[in-house]
Amino acid sequence: MRATVRPLRGADLLRGTDRLRTLVYPEYPEAHEPRRHAAVWDWLARHPLAAEMHRWVAVAENGEVVGHLAAVPQHYRILGTRVVAHTPADFQILPGYGFYALSLMRRFFGVAENCVCVDQVAEAIAIEERMGAEKAGRLHYAAKGLDFSRPTRVPAPLRPAMKVPTLGLRAVDRALGAAFGRGPAVEPLFGFGGGSGKLFDGLSEEVSAEVPCAVEKDAAFLKWRYGPGSPPNPVTVLGAVEGGDLLGYAVLWVNEEGGDGYLLDLTTRPRRRDAARSLLREAVRFFARAGAYIVRYRFAESPTSPRPEDLRRLGFFFREGRRHTMLVRFADPDLHVTALDVANWSYSAGDGEATFWAGRPVGSRNGSARMG
């Protein structure tokens, strides 16, 4: 079966891409909601680097869209150097047209001088490696059960704990939280702009100066990433504050069903483990109050993140099979060598493309004052 790869332009190809999504992911309700995905692409089009975003489709001889891939740009700091790297996004191909997955990825690497990929799908990882990206390592996947009244959704590692009532577990959580002792005060933050914008800018600069590899997350980026119009909005933002200084922040989101709590980002000043512990403890308490049954957190261990042993002390467990792989390719050899070790990265799930699609559908309630 033959197809041609071309830039995605025009209403017909957009409609064809919406139909492709329903064929590739028939079991997912959100795949049948084109307005939801249109809203994500409208949001991506407001990114400061939107002019450097690209989308391609594979089109069969009968005009059917049988494949899709996008290249989403982002600013990174590698060894203090500001660079733009692209991430492959929304990669889809119909069975029978697998050859054109390579053709789509060739288009991607033809425009992406630098790339950062975070993926879990073995087939996609194999293609990315074939095109020149190299594995830097794997992100941690940690989860914590909060409410076992819904046993069908409890992961296998937690089933032995089903004998413990949920209220008892929350009492245990309070004890575990106290085990960290007192740390910096944590309080809700109302957005990333206004007077707090300089605090986020300063934190981003400090992280970039001391951590070899990081997403550039100044106030403008964070407002775009989590503010009005973004897929997860509204989110809750917690800040660790000491003497008027921002030591770190956490971005929390509960999905529309109210069951899954996501720790999208937790970033502190380098080596402020006390701030990471305080934020982690208060994040767990927030999700418990919100009625989430589980907390999910993907991250690279770094001087700006919690340590795995701190997560375990709060009752998190780690799942090897749910970890994502980071792959990189940078044109500058020195930058590439540095980026090729995940231990050099400050990186959370919210920094990457995988979480762009996990938002509320268009038309759902999002009028919260928690973001501004």
UniProtKB/TrEMBL annotation:
List the Gene Ontology MF annotations in alphabetical order: transferase activity
Q: What domain of life?
A: Bacteria
- Write down the species: Rubrobacter tropicus
Provide the alphabetized UniProt keywords.
Answer: Transferase
List, alphabetically, the InterPro entries matched. Answer: Acyl_CoA_acyltransferase
Protein name from the UniProt record: GNAT family N-acetyltransferase
